[in-house]
Amino acid sequence: MLLIQTGLAGVFVVESQAVSDQRGFFMRLFCGNELESILAGRQIVQINQSITKSVGAVRGMHIQNPPHAEMKFVRCLRGKAWDVAVDLRMDSPTFLKWYAVELTPGNSRMLVIPEGCAHGYQCLEENSELLYLHTAPYTPAAEGGVPYNDPKLDIRWPLPATDVSVRDLALLPIAPDFFGIKV
């Protein structure tokens, strides 16, 4: 596994290498030993799967707030997704900056999103399927997020958003005193 540091602290792209022969291929999707430098003692405690049917659909931008904050590892098993992490750590030099990467089964990439960063994606092919590994269990009372189209973030989605959940449309925009500081 190749770890690639992005411009956001703690956000990594992990590239896996497939071993192929006449039967097909074998690829390690996750390895705690190889990822220990970024796991730093955390354990995967929950694994989720999503299927998004329509091209242009956006899921996000979601976060689990402390004390239930989580690190996520996200992979695309089928289709194509434009995966985004947004830094919501107010003490971070990249506060309110975002990073995006295209995830497909063919490019064998996984995006690592640390605690304090929101996550979302846009479906670029019908019936795209994503696999999520989490270091904390989902806690409904701790869920939060920011709008996928918040002008303060200026996320450049590759397609117009065609399908966004009622929950995601209700997320409040980043206010001038977001997290108690001026933005």
How would you describe the overall organization of this protein?
The chain is mainly beta. The chain has one domain (2-19, 27-172): Jelly Rolls (Sandwich), CATH 2.60.120. The chain is 4% helix and 40% strand. The protein contains 2 helices and 14 strands; from the N terminus they run E-E-E-E-H-E-E-E-E-E-E-E-E-E-E-H. It has a 6-stranded antiparallel beta sheet with strand order 1-2-10-7-12-5, with no helix packed on it. Strands 6, 8, 9, 11, 13 and 14 form a 6-stranded mixed beta sheet that branches. Strands 3-4 form a two-stranded antiparallel sheet. It is globular. It starts with a strand and ends in a 14-residue tail after the last helix. The relative contact order is 0.25. The mean pLDDT is 94.
Give a nutshell description of this structure:
By secondary structure, the chain is mostly beta strands.
Number of helices: 2
Strand content: 35-45%
How many structural domains can be distinguished in the coordinates?
A: 1
CATH topology: Jelly Rolls
Would you identify the regions where 5 or more consecutive residues have pLDDT less than 50?
Answer: none
Largest sheet: 6 strands, antiparallel
CATH superfamily: Jelly Rolls
| Approximate shape | globular
Order of helices and strands: EEEEHEEEEEEEEEEH
Strand order of the largest sheet: 1-2-10-7-12-5
CATH architecture: Sandwich
CATH class: Mainly Beta
